[in-house]
Specification:
This protein is of the alpha+beta class. 15% of the residues lie in helices and 33% in strands. The chain is built from nine helices and 42 strands. The strands form nine sheets. Strands 7, 9, 11, 12, 13, 15, 16, 19 and 21 form a nine-stranded mixed sheet that branches. Strands 3-2-1-4-5-6 form a six-stranded mixed sheet, sandwiched between helices. Strand 31 and strand 32 form a beta hairpin.
């Protein structure tokens, strides 16, 4: 389908109305009263218990219906009507839809208010769905083909600022006035003014155009004075960008926050494929909401989009184009969620199932990646389906004032902790990137005071990035009576609940002062956390203090013990206390603070402290069993390693490798034999003394400790050596000391072998002979019999005659 310059505006009209629902609007800067109004009210005059849901917004969708809109584009009326069914998530919001062209002859009007300003509750959304159908009926008898911007802007501003109570204009509890709702005009056009044929602007074409431009400037100034923003969206190939920019800048320039990008600006949509994306981004910017773009695919498919933990209100919008596409929603835990009603702490409401765009609005959504499954019958699978999430986080601010009851002229520290509507404490600073936090102090006897709070680690802030914003201010010296502090948060997609912290001034130096500390801990549900209360009582009588819990996580069922304590007179006391968690306490950072009040002084607050507790899931039986098994395995491994080391040490201590046996006769060395690796298994080395006739005696290893073995050298696990020879008992052997061996002596020397040189030849220094080398027939007769008493475990070797000759002394 081809889109004309005005094409697609019908879809945007309905879509903008629909998208107002998913967004939780922040407090508007545009309360009537002039352009000097700020984005947030600068006083703490707020209701004690503000509504829990999203803030309302008053907006008008103004659609160009001039002659350049082709008849085929009017067919998109059905889609626009279907989008209207999506509704507004805040039932206090109001919406209007206005079509415009020109007035060129009698009976014509430049504007058609097809939907008057309507409260977008359940019944109101139905009325909006019906009346938007009028956008598809062009009545040339009632509207001319031109483009009368001044009339369109005037009609929208009048409706948004007209009389009537409306939301945000009544009083809250305690008689305080609720801040006015934002007022926004979304203008869908190509930006080309055309009043050349409208008689009310002059007598000729040239003067009419110039007068029309002048009149538009005046109407924009009126919008600016009334606090009405103008957000133009341009379409077509011949867009007047300068005109659109001038209209955005001509209206009210205040924004929903002081964050750059939230002030009105024009947006150009180049193709029809970008329509839904562009309008959602524009609406999100105007409402200080955030948008998460998901995946795209043709049915059947699974699409995904991610909702962050900070989101408290959101909508998953599925641009399916074809009503035959069926959608199923799954939360990040993989569970199919209901289309209406409550489930696991969230509230769901689907709309648009029978239209081209479907939306699932979620209150308190589960954070993470949501899966959207799409199906369609044959013949309805050619269009791509896109999913997006528009969300806003409405944060509660838990405030600790130190001292809790200050005196006039005294400096106080204000510490703020952020938590969601469900009491989930925000601990990840990345979720609050770009957040600006301030507070307003109001009370009797002084003008309201504003001050900043930071999380930068610079005094008085204790630690950067712990998501506890801190600031200081001095109570005005003229202050009397009660004080009220309201925190303000400014960031796209984040709004404050504006709950006040109320206290009263201490008239004189307090007789009782206190300090509260709570131990940081990671615990399971049902556990106990320890804390300490330090009290100084300068009164002559004992004082009863009460410990209490505030701003705690819903469902935690916390209990503090003892609930009351007694501070002895004229003394300082340290009192331990405990905070016990309920068995159903939700996992995550635990919200809440411990406060102490003086019951003898009208429950005057003395001090408070945030809980610093992380609640984690208890281990399952499988995890406990596995840990026990793993612990046992680790212990067995340690024991095994110890046994192996012990065994190797024992084996090493028994090993005779490297020891050299020297056969001596007096001072004369006859022969020597070195024990090689593997020749003394079990610490046993068997050898014999060969005395062939006419040659000197030699030492020979006896493999296997056979029956012919005459002698055995043995080493035990303590490293001690013993020699056992045939016909003699077992005698101890010490390194370097001779022992008797028949007609000769044996000396055991050395230890582990030195590196070898050559092929299999030990590189050992031969001992120098101190006497003449025996000639033939020299040497005495040795014992060549078998060794008496055999030792098991002797090794085997195929060769005999393992003696080595040495040419030097050891």
């Amino acid at each position: 389908m081809q889109w004309t310059n005005k094409g697609g505006v019908l879809l945007l009209a309905g879509a903008l109305l629909a998208l107002s629902g998913p967004l939780a609007a922040t407090t508007a800067s545009g309360a009537p009263g002039g352009p000097g109004a700020n984005a947030f009210p600068r006083t703490a005059a707020t209701q004690a218990d503000p509504p829990e849901g999203p803030d309302p917004i008053d907006f008008a969708v103004v659609v160009d219906q001039s002659a350049s809109l082709a008849d085929k584009d009017l067919a998109r009326e059905t889609e626009a009507a279907a989008l209207l069914v999506q509704g507004e998530i805040s039932e206090r919001s109001r919406a209007a839809v206005i079509g415009f062209g020109s007035s060129e002859k009698r009976g014509q009007s430049p504007v058609r208010e097809v939907c008057p300003l309507t409260v977008a509750d359940a019944a109101g959304r139905e009325r909006l769905s019906d009346c938007v159908q009028e956008l598809g009926r062009r009545d040339e008898a009632r509207m001319g083909p031109g483009t009368d911007f001044p009339a369109a802007v005037r009609q929208a501003v009048t409706r948004l600022t007209g009389a009537g109570p409306g939301p945000g204009k009544g009083t809250g509890t305690g008689g305080t006035k609720e801040p006015a709702a934002p007022k926004v005009v979304f203008l869908l056009t190509d930006g080309k003014l055309d009043v050349a044929d409208s008689p009310e602007y002059g007598t000729d074409r040239e003067s009419r155009q110039s007068n029309g431009a002048l009149r538009l400037t005046e109407e924009l100034a009126r919008a600016r004075a009334a606090g009405v923003q103008i957000w133009p969206l341009g379409f077509g190939s011949e867009i007047d960008r300068a005109a659109l920019t001038a209209m955005a800048q001509g209206g009210y320039r205040g924004a929903c926050s002081e964050i750059p990008g939230s002030d009105p600006r024009m947006r150009v949509v180049d193709t029809s494929a970008e329509i839904d994306k562009a309008l959602q981004e524009t609406f999100a910017a105007a409402r200080c909401a955030r948008i998460a773009h998901g995946t795209v695919g043709k049915p059947p498919a699974d699409l995904t989009v991610t909702i962050p933990p900070i989101a408290t209100d959101g909508s998953l919008t599925v641009a399916k184009h074809d009503p035959k596409v069926q959608v199923t929603y799954f939360d990040p835990a993989g569970r199919k969620v209901p289309l209406r009603g409550e489930f696991d702490g969230s509230t769901f409401e689907v709309s648009g199932q029978n239209g081209p765009v479907e939306a699932l609005r979620v209150k308190n959504p589960l954070p993470g990646a949501w899966r959207v499954h799409i199906e369609a019958p044959e013949g309805h699978r050619d269009r791509e389906v896109a999913v997006r999430a528009i969300w806003q986080g409405r944060l509660q601010s838990a405030v600790v004032l130190d001292p809790a009851s200050p005196r006039a002229g005294e400096q106080v520290k204000v510490e703020v902790q952020m938590q969601t509507r469900r009491g989930v404490v925000i601990t990840d600073p990345r979720q609050l990137a770009g957040l600006s936090v301030a507070a307003d102090l109001s009370g009797d006897g002084f003008r309201p005071v504003s001050f900043k709070l930071t999380d930068d680690g610079k005094a008085p802030d204790a630690k950067a990035g712990d998501v506890r914003f801190t600031g200081t201010l001095t109570i005005p010296a003229s202050a009397t009576g009660y004080l009220e502090i309201v925190t303000r948060m400014e960031a796209p997609g984040i709004t404050s609940d504006r709950r006040p912290l109320r206290t009263r001034l201490a008239e004189n130096a307090p007789l009782v002062t206190a300090a509260v500390t709570v131990d940081g801990a990671t615990v399971h549900p049902g556990a106990t956390v320890r804390g300490t209360l330090d009290v100084t009582n300068n009164d002559s009588a004992p004082r009863t203090l009460r410990l209490a819990l505030a701003n705690q996580t819903p469902g935690a069922e916390l209990a503090v013990s003892p609930a009351t304590v007694t501070a002895p007179p004229n003394s300082s006391t340290r009192i331990p206390f405990t905070v016990t968690l309920g068995k159903d306490t939700p996992f995550g950072a635990l919200a809440g603070q411990v406060t102490v009040v003086d019951t003898a002084d009208s429950d005057r607050p003395l001090r408070g402290a945030f809980l610093n507790v992380q609640v984690v899931e208890p281990p399952t039986w499988w995890e406990r069993w596995w840990k026990a098994v793993a612990g046992g395995a680790a212990l067995a491994l340690v024991i095994g390693i110890f046994v192996v080391i012990w065994f190797m040490a024992r084996r090493r201590s028994r090993d005779l490798t490297g020891f050299t046996l020297e056969l001596r006769q007096g001072e004369r060395s006859l022969d020597s034999l070195t024990v090689r690796r593997g020749q003394s298994p079990g610490g046993v080395f068997a050898f014999a003394v060969d005395e062939p006739y006419g040659t000197p005696p030699t030492l020979r290893r006896m493999p296997g400790g056979g029956s012919s073995a005459a002698h055995v050298l043995r080493r035990n696990g303590n490293g001690e050596m013993q020699l056992r020879s045939r016909g003699a008992g077992q005698v101890p052997v010490r390194t370097g000391e001779p022992v008797g061996l028949g007609d000769h002596e044996l000396v055991v020397r050395g230890g582990r072998p030195t590196p070898t040189r050559g092929r299999g030849t030990p590189w050992l220094r031969r001992p120098r002979r101190t006497g003449p080398r025996p000639g033939p027939g020299g040497g005495g007769t040795g014992d060549t019999g078998s060794a008496s008493g055999s030792f098991s475990g002797a090794g085997t070797e195929g060769s005999s005659g393992d003696a080595s000759q040495y040419d030097g002394n050891f």
